[in-house]
Fold:
Amino acid sequence: MANPFETVWNTLKTAIDNIDEPKSPLHIIEAGDCWNYLTLMEEFIRYEEIGLNTTTDDEVKEMLKDIISLCEGQVKALSDFMKKEGIPLADVTSAKPESEPNDIPLGVKLTDDEITNGIAFKLVTCMTASAKGQADSVRNDVGLMWFGFYTEWTTFGTTLKMLMRKRGWLKVPPYYYPPGLPDK
Structure:
C-alpha cells in the first residue's frame, strides 16, 4: 500500500511536471461534479443562514459564520473555475434575509442541537462529494482543487466535533458487542 505522503508528493510532482502542457478539456463527469458541488454549497449556505437566524448561542453563531466563510470561499473558487472552463452555473436559491431569533415560534425554530447535527450531516455530504470529485478527475488541477476542498472540510470537522462533544450534541450510535464477547 502506498504511503499517503508519497501519494500527495507524486500528485504535486505530476502537476508541476505537466505545467507547460496544454490542459485537456474537462470530461463530462468532471463538469457534472463541479455543477453538483456548486449547487450543494449554495444550498448549504442557505441552511447556515437559517441557523444564524434561529440561534442565540454565541459559539454556534461563530461556528456558523466560520462555515459560511468556508462555503463562500469554495463557491467563489469553483464559480471562477467553472466560468473559465465554460460550465454554466447552477440557478440557486436566494440568500435568506436576517431575522430576529426570538421572533421565530418555538415549533418552527431549529434548536442548536438540530443546527449542529444538520451541519455535521451536510459536512459529511460535502466531504463525500469532494472525494468523488477528486476520484473522478483526470486533470491534476481539478484533482488538486477537490483535494483542497476535502482538506478544508476535514479541518472544520474537528472544530465542529469538539463543539458538539462539549455540548453533548454528538449523536453516537449504539455500541456493538459481538456475540461471545466476555463480560467486563
